[in-house]
Specification:
259 residues; two-stranded antiparallel ribbon; mainly alpha
């Protein structure tokens, strides 16, 4: 393994463990708790796609006339990840992005999709995050999570985007959460099959194949540049801290609702 990759993984391991063992999972006891979780998590699913597409824009030619951009290895890596994330197959074998799958899973279990749909509609029309946040009444922790992601996107530094994508997003769904969803799926047949499929698919594709591709992409982009590797480590730490903050928000809302 690349020694720089190994160092980053060592540095972020305590944060990864804090996420994997976060107290939020201990308070998801029924389908109503799961709905709250999904109503926060959907923003991370959405901006994950934005981070991914920003990498594709930076690392490949996405305009005409076409000219080769950068390294063919990184072009291959990002294009393969985009294909899997943007046009995977859902439980019925129909091509969909993982975000679209997640929205359908929310609708199936009765989670409220209105805020995120309103948020994206306003953002698409008005190009104003502040207006979209405000009018759709997005939770504070979700706003801050998305704001951080778009700071990384707007910085237009591919090695930092790749590090945030690779270390801040992949392989962060704990076995405990998978077990909770599977148990709830048995209790509420027909309401959670799509979120179960989404999670199983995430583990199969994102947590295995895509995570290896992402590691290779980050190694390609940082190369032998020690400063790049230092910055990649810093952004990886910050990304995981943002995830913890998001989960804190979910935990506090579940506790408040159930008080």
């Amino acid at each position: 393994m690349n020694s720089h990759i190994a160092r980053i993984q060592s540095v972020i391991e305590p944060l990864r463990q804090e996420i994997i063992n976060h107290k939020v999972y201990s308070v998801i006891n029924d389908i109503e708790d799961l709905k709250i979780f999904m109503q926060y998590h959907v923003y991370a699913v959405w901006d994950f796609m934005s981070l991914l597409k920003s990498l594709q824009i930076g690392l490949t030619s996405t305009s005409t006339p076409w000219f080769p951009v950068g390294n063919a290895n990184t072009r291959y890596l990002i294009n393969e990840i985009v294909t899997g994330e943007e046009s995977d197959v859902d439980a019925a074998g129909i091509r969909k992005s993982h975000y679209e799958m997640y929205l359908e899973a929310m609708e199936q279990c009765g989670a409220d999709t209105k805020p995120v749909m309103e948020f994206t509609a306003i953002l698409k029309e008005e190009k104003s995050f502040f207006k979209a946040y405000t009018e759709a009444d997005i939770p504070k922790e979700a706003r801050e999570f998305v704001d951080f992601t778009f700071e990384v996107i707007d910085g237009k530094q591919s090695h930092l985007q790749s590090a945030a994508f690779t270390f801040g997003r992949e392989d962060l769904i704990p076995a405990m959460f998978i077990s909770i969803v599977r148990d709830l799926n048995e209790k509420f047949p027909g309401q959670l099959s799509l979120i179960k499929y989404y999670l199983d698919r995430h583990i199969e594709v994102d947590g295995d194949h895509h995570s290896h591709l992402a590691l290779d992409m980050t190694a390609e982009l940082c190369g032998e540049n020690e400063e790049f590797w230092k910055e990649a480590e810093e952004i990886a730490v910050a990304s995981l801290q943002q995830r913890i903050h998001l989960w804190d928000g979910v935990y506090n809302e579940i506790i408040s609702v159930n008080a």
